[in-house]
Design brief:
The protein is α/β, with parallel strands linked by helices. The protein has 23 helices and 8 strands. Strands 2-3-4-1-5 form a 5-stranded parallel beta sheet, with helices on one face. It binds zinc ion.
Length: 447
């Protein structure tokens, strides 16, 4: 059986997300008949919502709870819930039950007393998929729930839940799993499976799981087939992490407009007999993620060129050629930008870009700006010649806390540059060149 199912947290202490665990623990402090009748579990896929829903169901129905009130995980009731066969715990996937009829049926069924336990529990997964009619029916039920009925709703898309429903629920947010939570989950399984794995390897898994318990556990499962001790190297080899690294390296080179390195990346790919198309698609997926996080003209341009290369792949006798062409054209275009970003002392790591969208925090410094002031002026020209001209006789004075101070040496220069429109224009150019969003201030200096 798959690890993710086998090692689903069965009792409260096993819920790996610390914040969620603490929220559920709070439920233990009250008598059950004073607890809310409806819960809304919100979070991305693979973060443990269904698991937690079942633990809450056990909390209500367990026959032999611990002194703390936590469910035992082993009694008849707990086992039936874990196996998804408890008569009074209904699991409904709204993605396949959107009709209002089902909710009507549900309402009728809810009215009946529980068969075995004291409580009747409805777990509705992907609840945002319910039709408006179904939501109304659900809302009516939530407004006056029978005393024995508990609703545990789960969703990946809380925007789509009407406020009338969510306001009646105790909300339990599931963010992306934090590293310690992922480690908590992995260590539980490592212990149970008696795996030998070093810390560095665990760290690598966590790093690549992107906040998903499911992904982390899947990786661990793949590694569990290894007989020898699992090291970072084994992780790299087994988990196609090497491919991720290769892709990210390539994109970093491209963003930095390192043409030679980017072309070498492609050649290495081809030499290993890898599929260029798959690689290109992987790159585009990655770029799309960043595009959603925040856009720059640079990013748009790169995506456009790579899509074009993808289109040309089919008719090209040499599969890597369209990609190589795209690389050369992209690197040659906007060379000024390339030179600015390409300064080796401060070239941003891809990771850094990834985290905050596409911005490169901390890239802009006074030295950098002074060094590339000419590029700034050149970039300003197409916007407004006279502003560019004024900037030529001004100079950057300071970069601090997201504010770029420019020193002008004549009052009318200061006036011109201080106009909101002009400062916005300069900020736009700085964002384009350095990837950093800043405010611009202009002071009058002495020559
Ligand atoms: Zn139990």
């Amino acid at each position: 059986m798959a690890f993710y199912r086998t090692y689903r947290p069965k009792v409260l202490e096993e819920i790996d997300n610390a914040q969620v665990r603490e929220t559920v623990e709070l439920l233990l402090t009250k008598p059950k008949d004073q607890l809310p009748h409806a819960y809304l579990l919100i979070g991305p896929k693979g973060t443990g919502k269904t698991t937690t829903a079942r633990v809450i169901a056990k909390l209500f129905n367990c026959e032999k709870p611990a002194k703390t009130g936590a469910p035992c995980g082993t009694c008849e009731q707990c086992s039936a819930i874990a196996g998804g066969v408890h008569l009074d715990v209904m699991e409904i996937d709204a993605a396949s039950n959107t009709g209002v009829d089902n909710i009507r049926e549900l309402r009728d069924a809810i009215a009946l007393a529980p068969a075995r336990g004291k409580w009747k529990i409805y777990i509705i997964d992907e609840v945002h998929m319910l039709s408006p009619g179904a939501f109304n029916a659900l809302l009516k039920t939530l407004e006056e729930p029978p005393l024995h009925a508990i609703f545990i709703l789960a969703t990946t898309d809380p925007q789509k839940i009407p406020a009338t429903v969510s306001s009646r629920c105790q909300i339990i947010p599931f963010g992306k799993a934090e590293s310690p939570d992922l480690i908590h989950a992995l260590e539980r399984i490592i212990k149970a499976e008696k795996m030998t794995i070093d810390e560095e390897a665990v760290r690598l898994i966590v790093q690549n799981a992107d906040g998903s318990f499911r992904d982390a556990v899947k990786m661990l499962e793949q590694l569990s087939f290894q007989k020898k001790k699992i090291t970072a190297e084994v992780v790299y080899k087994t988990l196609a992490i090497a491919e991720t690294k290769r892709r990210d390296d390539f994109l970093t080179h491209l963003f930095n407009r390192q043409m030679k390195e980017s072309l070498a990346d492609i050649q290495a790919l081809v030499a290993e007999g890898r599929d260029v198309k798959t690689f290109l698609v992987d790159c585009l997926w990655q770029l799309q993620k960043r595009f959603v996080a925040g856009q720059t003209a640079d990013l748009r341009e790169l995506i456009r060129r790579l899509i074009q290369a993808y289109g040309e792949l089919r008719s090209s006798p040499i599969p890597e050629l369209p990609l190589e062409l795209a690389v050369v054209e992209y690197c040659e275009q906007n060379k000024t930008i390339g030179q600015v970003i390409n300064s080796p002392s401060n070239s941003p790591s891809l990771e850094k870009r990834g985290q905050g969208g596409v911005t490169m925090e901390g890239l802009l410094s006074l030295d950098k700006l002074t060094e590339h002031w000419r590029d700034v002026i050149d970039e300003l020209k197409p916007f407004n010649h006279s502003v560019a001209a004024v900037c030529r006789s001004a100079r950057p004075k300071g970069v601090k806390d997201g504010i770029v101070t420019i020193e002008a040496f004549y009052p009318f220069h200061q006036e011109k540059l201080s106009e909101v429109k002009t400062r916005d224009m300069i900020a736009t150019v700085l964002k384009k060149l350095f990837g950093e969003k800043v405010k611009v201030e202009v002071v009058l200096g002495k020559k």
